Queue: 2 jobs
Job 1
Amino acid sequence: MFLLDIDLESKEPIYKQIVDQIITMIEEGTLTSGSKLPSTRELSLILKLSRNSCIHAYEELEAREYISIIKGKGAFVSNVQKHLNRGWNIAWKKQCSDYAKRAVELDIIKSEPVTKKGMISFKSIAPDEKLFDLEQVRRNFLNGIALEGEKLLNYGYAKGYRPLIEYLEIYLKDKGICLEGKDILITNGFTEAFDIILASITKPLDSIICENPTHNTAIKIIKLHELNIASVSMENGEINVEELEKALSSGNNKLVYLIPSYHNPMGTVMSASKRKEVYELCKKYNTPIVEDGFNEELLYSSSHVSSIAAVAGMDNGVIYLGSFSKVLFPGIRVGWIVADKGLIEVLESVKRSRNIHTSVLDQMLLYQFLKSGDFELYMKKTRKFYREKYEFSIECSKRYLPHSRIYGEGGLYIFIELVDIDSRVLLKRAMEKGVIFMPGDIFFVNEKGRNTFRLGFSRLSLKDIEKGFRIIGKCIEDIKANK
Amino acid sequence: MFLLDIDLESKEPIYKQIVDQIITMIEEGTLTSGSKLPSTRELSLILKLSRNSCIHAYEELEAREYISIIKGKGAFVSNVQKHLNRGWNIAWKKQCSDYAKRAVELDIIKSEPVTKKGMISFKSIAPDEKLFDLEQVRRNFLNGIALEGEKLLNYGYAKGYRPLIEYLEIYLKDKGICLEGKDILITNGFTEAFDIILASITKPLDSIICENPTHNTAIKIIKLHELNIASVSMENGEINVEELEKALSSGNNKLVYLIPSYHNPMGTVMSASKRKEVYELCKKYNTPIVEDGFNEELLYSSSHVSSIAAVAGMDNGVIYLGSFSKVLFPGIRVGWIVADKGLIEVLESVKRSRNIHTSVLDQMLLYQFLKSGDFELYMKKTRKFYREKYEFSIECSKRYLPHSRIYGEGGLYIFIELVDIDSRVLLKRAMEKGVIFMPGDIFFVNEKGRNTFRLGFSRLSLKDIEKGFRIIGKCIEDIKANK
């Protein structure tokens, strides 16, 4: 008897489901040492699956020493003794909470295609390491240690490293944000900031509004909190205000999540007038805004547009999330929340209950970079470096993807909307030619966006950018030709 | 009309509740600029509260510029214009989720008495900064940067910094832990480790077993997850096995949380035979163990006792949590989970969804300390340093607290059980004399432990240890004399 329970709807890859279930059977003793497994051909027929998934599964099982494949004879359960030696074996995956299962299912690192060696990858939007100046890192670290000494190594405060908070206060005031009655909490980057905010002001089945498409990590966190999403379309790269008002007026929404600057994935910037309009609408319907300012600094040419938090003035209806991860070092897990003082008091206790505080060394290093002026110089270099890649990417997209719609006004990526072509089909073909990118559907909260994708250019050379675009353009033509 | 809604049962101090509610009334415009507040005497009569709480509240309101107290005239609402300028004012504290409210309520940093300048503090169990060697920190940091360069500053892996994981594998094997079918996940210390484990394998109203008393942060996290607690008494500093079996057999418990080495707060070590017995019991009732090994390294004289994770061998029923925070640098937020490989895969996705990964620089620095041998040398120095304080504390406790029961076999603290004296009463009196400690009730899951307290000696000089014990002893005598 050989029964596997494969869920075709699950985000977990088929081959992985096969692997996990066979391992469980081996470890629980249902499949004993030396017993023969069905061939991959038989398995694919029994389960009505692609033979490739079965082959992939058996390869992994062999690599993990659960089975041995003997040429011409078949696949046999091996090493069972080793795994059966357990007098006490808990089937942990079965024990996991729904929350944990969702975290696995929504973990695109585990489900999306992986960049292979030698590929031109437009997937990443992490900074280019070539920009990092180790001498500056050394100097700023040693300065921090020299100034503050041993106490940097003992417990810090949940709220954050005080000199950094004080520096950010000045930095934010310079950006026009009024801090009267507000406060700052340091977090382990945007991800933690958004997670603890949702944990603190929502409960399951609450509804929240976001742009569609939007940052995929935000979608993941929203789904992990079991919230309902009222999504609002983007129109020419900006939120559709009529739709927003409809959403605001029709539901009891807990908050509106927005990325006004260098929107992820679209790379677009919401105009100053639209920001004001959106702000007034949210105020009218008493629905707070969570503003994601994650790469607001990556301005190339367009003039500065004030954050919605600045538009709010003294009002306390905006929660602003900041981070320098994308512009300085992602490895330094430091972000911050600017919000009403009373709310920050609560978030501080939540933060403390989850990990006591953010790494003091990371915070100290960031502070030293800011204070020494190295950050400002670095930003100038960074903007110049990425602007060249950005402009070249725009140029290439016009040349090689002539019938597509191109979005992006800065930042580290551009966003492409194809006419009538499935970007998953395109991705498959492009990967065969050595190019990988982020399919657009992962940024949409409903089944939309199948004809879109995001191209991150930050880590690619101009040569690879051009080559990559050329290959994608060729793949599109091939797909059209075969229709 | 002046109505406040004071909850006497809440863990939030009375004065804080008064402050928050008056601020809300001022900010919402219920109390307008210039209006007179009741006097503290009147307020204490209306609300049936101690006058002290009211005075404390008014002092804080004045410090925060919400009211001005004019001698001989009374307290008046001030600065209202500033706060009322808000066209949009959200009463955030009211908006918060029950989870967030619990996090505030359970945050002892906000509710327990604060150490004031000049006090002898037995409250802290953080390491003494005098032990930190900045030259070693500099050298190890620079070595790490020189070896790994720029990639340390870019995104890392949710699972952790690979060289550190590989080092820990060897380290754990040396301690007799079998890693067959198991894996390691790096976390932001114990707190995050325990939090994501509970989030991943429990749901609200599930039941878990723990020792009573136990680590107060663990209790907080358990309560935040809305779990029921089946507590098992400690008997001569070890868990009562009969009670444990009763708890295991009578409920459907998700896990047993244990601190076998240098138990917090008792400082006791579970014997090897008891560990075996406890392990077999949990196995019999198929209830996994979460073993907190947070300061297992702080062994002074007693011979090494293997962790329960080592007793388990190949079995996968133990989740082991490790950390060097208490023995190296707490500021470095690095801990780890050793568990079944399948479970670690799930926890990795949960970790990624919460903060992407732990600071790479922290992990790198810890790894360099381990690899260079500095950690081992440091541990020798540390043990010697704390052993002296430990032995002296035991000596002092026998001398100055002769009628008390003393627990503690190492680590950074000892635990005192008084005969028929309330440690909160003792604490109040001791604080008047300039000594502070951690009252024992915060470590108990029920109303027990009122006659106990924990004395952390790690950061005190021998002189202050003696002085502190003498003062506590004197306070006990005074209390007895006044009975």
Note: Chain A has 19 helices and 17 strands.
Job 2
Amino acid sequence: MSLSLAAIVEALGGELRGSPEREVARLASLETATPADISFLVPNPKLAGLLAQTQAGCIIVAPAMQEAAGARGDCIVASDPYLYFARLTQLWKRTHLPPEPAGIHPSAVVEEGAQVHPAARVGALCFVGSGARIGAHTVLRERVTVASGCTIGERCLIESGAVIGGDGFGFAPHQGQWVKIEQLGGVRIGNDVEIGANTCIDRGALDDTVIEDGVKLDNLIQIGHNTHIGAHTAMAGCVGVAGSARIGAHCTVGGAGMILGHLDIADHVHISAASMVARSITKPGQYTGFFPIDDNAAWEKNAASLKHLHALRERVRQLEKKLAENGDNARLSG
Amino acid sequence: MSLSLAAIVEALGGELRGSPEREVARLASLETATPADISFLVPNPKLAGLLAQTQAGCIIVAPAMQEAAGARGDCIVASDPYLYFARLTQLWKRTHLPPEPAGIHPSAVVEEGAQVHPAARVGALCFVGSGARIGAHTVLRERVTVASGCTIGERCLIESGAVIGGDGFGFAPHQGQWVKIEQLGGVRIGNDVEIGANTCIDRGALDDTVIEDGVKLDNLIQIGHNTHIGAHTAMAGCVGVAGSARIGAHCTVGGAGMILGHLDIADHVHISAASMVARSITKPGQYTGFFPIDDNAAWEKNAASLKHLHALRERVRQLEKKLAENGDNARLSG
Amino acid sequence: MSLSLAAIVEALGGELRGSPEREVARLASLETATPADISFLVPNPKLAGLLAQTQAGCIIVAPAMQEAAGARGDCIVASDPYLYFARLTQLWKRTHLPPEPAGIHPSAVVEEGAQVHPAARVGALCFVGSGARIGAHTVLRERVTVASGCTIGERCLIESGAVIGGDGFGFAPHQGQWVKIEQLGGVRIGNDVEIGANTCIDRGALDDTVIEDGVKLDNLIQIGHNTHIGAHTAMAGCVGVAGSARIGAHCTVGGAGMILGHLDIADHVHISAASMVARSITKPGQYTGFFPIDDNAAWEKNAASLKHLHALRERVRQLEKKLAENGDNARLSG
């Protein structure tokens, strides 16, 4: 299980400074790499010191670092070392790990009327409902649900336990009880989408819930009915998006971020972890809202004061007024 | 696939103003409806303008809107258009979608000693443990777990991936380690309950965890052991309820709301999204607690100041004192 | 279905004050116990009053309470009543509930090359990938995924729906799109670990994600790739841990706590529920950070003021300055 530097550069490009015949046994971070391993250095001046400390046998570096890296041993020069490294993990997987073959696992349940492309893979113990469509080269790992009438594009990866097409959460209140609104829409997922383990994407009430091309969703995310997520938006674990939110393209949402329903998020908006979006956001940028953690005693005092913040602001206003009056009086009497 | 207005009114009541023979091809929102579709207008003055813009072939309206709606085309007059619409989705499902037939899917695992009512449905790849009971007309979608000794009432809907009856989280600390408290209770779920995809309801430690009639739980919700949820309470996605909480009837909890254990929530309490309940709430009302989102730079400054809020309050107190003394001095010397 | 007090003391030790031949029919809390039940009293002066009210036939008490407890009826004296009770639940389970027999359920899918210890149990509809290893006396409940190359130690309990070894969430940005970093590491779980329902533990990017001995994770928890969780740490439901976090031993994290990636948490750190950890924590202690809940109107006013807190602090600074100047002026002119 190894790759020669020559084979790497042949497959991925980049300029090799060092021995083409060197074999690397493992991909590793700079901190844990041994002389048998290949690693990478992102072009960050703060990390330049790692170059002197790492034991890595070969390092992928940016052109600006090639002298320093070359002086210590083998390196591959690439314009974007992190991207190069990503592609190296893909090369490694192709050459070292068993493929995930196309086809439907015998333990999966695929209902009549579902269309699974022959080049797609439906893993063990999956369920694919009638009328669902799964595109070419898409992989459903194990125990995935794709309910009836939902469509998934090409080259998607759906992790274990994900549920695509559960009922949206819709009820009309009536005399203290809830009357179900049947969810008649579906879920439409584009190409190159990744959906994490145990993540849920609800079907729409009337129209479809839509996930555009290239969206990446981490684990345990809840996407409410009729949400629209723009292309290449990425969300970290535990995020919740309520119904009918319209989220732009190229956005990111940090872990446990929460987006309320029926609002619009522009393209290129970045929501920090643990932040709650209760209004539409029309301008690109980074948005944050969480209570900073503190030792418990300090938090208790500040949280208690927070309950009086509005009153405190009023008290400051009064002080300002009084002081201004005093000043006027002083001037008048001066 | 269509329904005539006559058939709708015959099934659901309401007063038809227009052509009974008109066929509607789809249920749609006012914004997306075409002349072939039926839509609804909730009686909200802010939305009255939609009436002029929508292309819908028929609109369900409240009596107060019947003149305006009738002037533009066909309408159905109903006292509660949203409720009428909910029932129309149910009619549509009954008449247009394949039924979810009763019975146990051959891929499901139902242990000996489980009691599944013949009119219940156990979907593909479900697990029902020994001693569990599932009532009439209850539907387990796919890949649901109902562990041994748990009971589910009638007309419930359990979405894919839900886990009913996992062990509650209970341990006694001992010399730096955790000794398991076996969870000997079960889960008791009433009638007309809906439980979302990948939601978890833990079995009780000694007594049962109880979900009363008509409760609606969205996806990815965690209900701790020995929790008691009163009738017709509804919770949105990503909510967490810790152990032994006692939540009243007719409550709502917004997405990612968090309720600590061993506390009581009165009936008719509404918890906003992303809010954390750390004490019992004895009075009906709306309760909220989350840090308002802001652009990141503004948040950083305010969050940093928040760590000094208690001290700031003390400083304001000092200022007030000093100013009062100055005033007294002024008066004394005046 | 009962146990005699003699049998309990014989199995678990402790000093019986009362009738050895008394049979207990149920374990119960003090509040719900009947004369046929056994209960326990933790040594908390606040709870001593419960002793007079409970109907329990026998109570497990600490030595300090033995006189009071003995005066009202049968009791078992144990140095740590809660620990004794935990062991009693285990005894009860062993003697009253059907065992969870070792072996692989016929509906489970275990790939070639997986190593399942003959004394382990793989429940219904589980998936165990090639190269995965499951140790002796470990139980996978139903519908668990253990992906290829992941290892689980001995005496672990994995609840229904858990996903061990999904891909970590790693992408390199490239021209507005995301290029996948294949996740080549695995998950290594120690002995005596408990993992809750629908909890997800991602495989590492290069190295393994590591969960040390005795860790207890509740339901719906997300553990990112390359996280390291120290021995005997416990986390409540809905917690999220981002990638490459390094969490110490003997820590606790309350429900919905959130820990960002690439940071270190020392041993014996306790994070409160709903608190967000955005920096490393180097000292043991309790840490908290959430916005205190309030009635909605009060919250709205305080939250609005919070957006001006930094400015408010500046205004207080100005007031202090002015007041100090006035004082100086007064003294100068005095």
Note: Chain B has a mean pLDDT of 95.
